[in-house]
Amino acid sequence: MDELEQGLLMQPWAWLQLAENSLLVKAYITKQGYALLVSDLQQVWHEQVDTSVISQRAKELNKRLTAPPAAFLSHLNDLLCPLLKDTAGPGKATFSCDRVAEALILRVRSELSGLPFYWNFHCILASPLLVSQHLIRPLMGMSLALQCQVRDLAMLLRKKDLELQDYQESGATLSRDRLKTEPFEENSFLEQFMVEKLPEACSVGDGRPFVTNLQSLYMAVTRQEIQVGQKLQGTGDPQTSSSASSQGTDSQLLNQPEELISSVPSLSVPEKEPTVTSGPVQRPQLLKVKRKKLSGLFI
User: Fold this and answer.
1) Which of 69, 116, 237, 295 has the highest CB neighbour number within 10 Å of its CB?
2) CB 248 within 8 Å of CB 5
3) Who contacts 232 (Cβ-Cβ below 8 Å, separation ≥6)?
4) pLDDT digits over 55-79, tens only?
5) Long-range contacts made by residues 192-201, C-beta under 8 angstroms, separation at least 24?
C-alpha cells in the first residue's frame, strides 16, 4: 500500500450536497498527487493520479494558467479541505457531477490568481478490494467495537445496581423519588430497543448520519487496521500479501503531509469479555484479609 492509498484509508468520509444529489466523499492530497473516493450508497468510484496526470489535465482545462503540479494540488487541497470539513465559505468553489457510462466526473469551478480555475475528477468504479478496505471491513470493525462497548456498559450497570442495593440495605434513602430506577435487565432492554429504537437507528438516508456521528470511530478502526497490518508485515506473516494491510512504518504515519482532517487515537477492543451469570442480584461481600506481620530493618 503506497502513501496515497494509506493516506486515503485514514481519512474520514464527508457528506457533499450537490444540486443533482448528495455524495459521500473522502480525499487525500499530497505534493505528489491525490486519491479520491466517492459513493452515492449504490456505487463507489475512485481516482488516483500523480503529477504527470495533474500537469496534463491542467493544460487541457486551464490554458491561461501556468503553474507547477504542486501549485494545482495545493489549490485543490484548499478547495476540498474546508468542504470536507463542512467549513467552506460561500462562493469559494462550485461543484457538480456527471455520470458517463460507469464513470463519474466531479467538476470543480473556482479561481486561482484571479483567473478562472477548472478541474475534473475522472472517477471509475472502485475495485472490490477498495470497497472492502474503505467500507466493508471498517464497518464490520465498528459493529464489533460498538457491541463490545454495549456489553461493557451493561456490566457497569449491573455493578451499579449492586452498589445501590448495598446502600439501600444499609438504610440509605433517596432524597427525590423521581431519581429512583429499576434494576437493569439486559434482555428486556434489548427487546425494547429492537421495537422502539431500531427503525430510527437504521435510518441510513443519504449517509449523513453516518458521516456526522461515527467518523471518529471510523478513523480509529481504520488506523487500528493499518497498525495490525504493519505488525504482521514486521513478523513476515505470509497472509499480509492478501490482506488490506499497510507496508508503511509508524514514522510514515506520524510524518504525513498535511491531511484533510486530523486523526484520532486507535480504538483497542478487548479480546475476551468477562462472563456475567444471570439470576437474582446478590449483595457483594467484603472479605477480611489477615495482615502479615512485617519484618525488616525498621521493625
Assistant:
1) 69
2) no
3) 239, 240, 243, 245
4) 999 999 998 888 899 999 999 999 8
5) none
